[in-house]
Amino acid sequence: MSLRIAIAGKGGSGKTTVAALLCRSLLAGQFKPLLAVDADPNSNLAEKLGIGVEQTIGDLREELRQNPDKKPAGISKNEWIEDRLNRSVSESAGLDLVVMGRQEGPDCYCFINHLLRHCLDKIGRQYAAVVIDNEAGLEHLSRRSNGQVEVLLVVANPTITGARTAARIMELVHSLKLDIGHCALVLNQSDRKLDESLQSEFKRSGLETLSRIPDDEVIRECERKNQPLLKLPDESKAAQAVAAMLEKIIAMRRENP
Ligand SMILES: Nc1ncnc2c1ncn2[C@@H]1O[C@H](COP(=O)(O)OP(=O)(O)O)[C@@H](O)[C@H]1O
Ligand SMILES: [Mg+2]
Predict the structure, then answer these.
(1) Which of 163, 144, 175 is nearest to 201 (CA)?
(2) CA distances (Å), 246 to each of 126, 157, 238, 239, in order?
(3) Which residue, by CA, sits nearest to atom 16 of ligand 1?
(4) pLDDT band at 145 (very low <50, low <70, confident <90, very high)
(5) 21: CA distance to ligand 2 center in Å?
(6) Tell me, what's the pLDDT at 88?
(7) Ligand showing the shortest atom-to-Cα distance for residue 214
(8) Could you tell me the residue ranges of all domains in the chain?
(9) CA of 164 relative to ligand 1 center, distance in Å
(10) Domain topology for 3-255
């Protein structure tokens, strides 16, 4: 089964950075082919991966809505959508990217959304690993369009707001009874040990800290130069932390297959 990792957290907490660095480590660990899913409408995962995008799922959904009957003769609607979806995957060496784009629309989109979800799930199975960069509001998680998630990483900055958001995300996960193998906390831009009050605030989420990613000047430099994070040198402290985090995820997987 492909290793499916979803990333959630407040806007600006570092989800996309963690997603891109995780892709970097997965590729280095020969998890190929790898699929990255940008499920944040304010998407910038493509940039951080250095992949160009021609069509988002939102564009495809709109096209299907405007031309419900448009499909070549001789194939089913399912097959056609699958083909179109396959073609909306942007490719790079060992790494493919799907961008969800605009949010799902009103009820009239229901049928199309259902089809898209089904096909995306199917496509995901063809990969060694799938990394999903979700938006803050967890729309896709709550609509279950992430599919069956093996690991949910809740990314938070070491602040009271970060801790509260992490707790809220976990409330949602529990109330929706989402099928997630393992949930863990990733503290980003976190160089120092948390003080006691912050520690107890984070305890409320019930999450264990899987990784602490230091604040890293190299990441800011990449951003300034508009360079993809996939090329981050091994010396980067943040990249090292994410590589170590992936090792833990792989070990966790071995223990609980
Ligand atoms: N560990 C880090 N060190 C330095 N800068 C970081 C780190 N993590 C994130 N950033 C920066 O913080 C900003 C927000 O990160 P981003 O990953 O886009 O957050 P999100 O996807 O959660 O909105 C970006 O400018 C990013 O470069
Ligand atoms: Mg983001």
Answers:
(1) 163
(2) 21, 19, 12, 11
(3) 14
(4) low
(5) 13
(6) 75
(7) 1
(8) 3-255
(9) 19
(10) Rossmann fold (3.40.50)
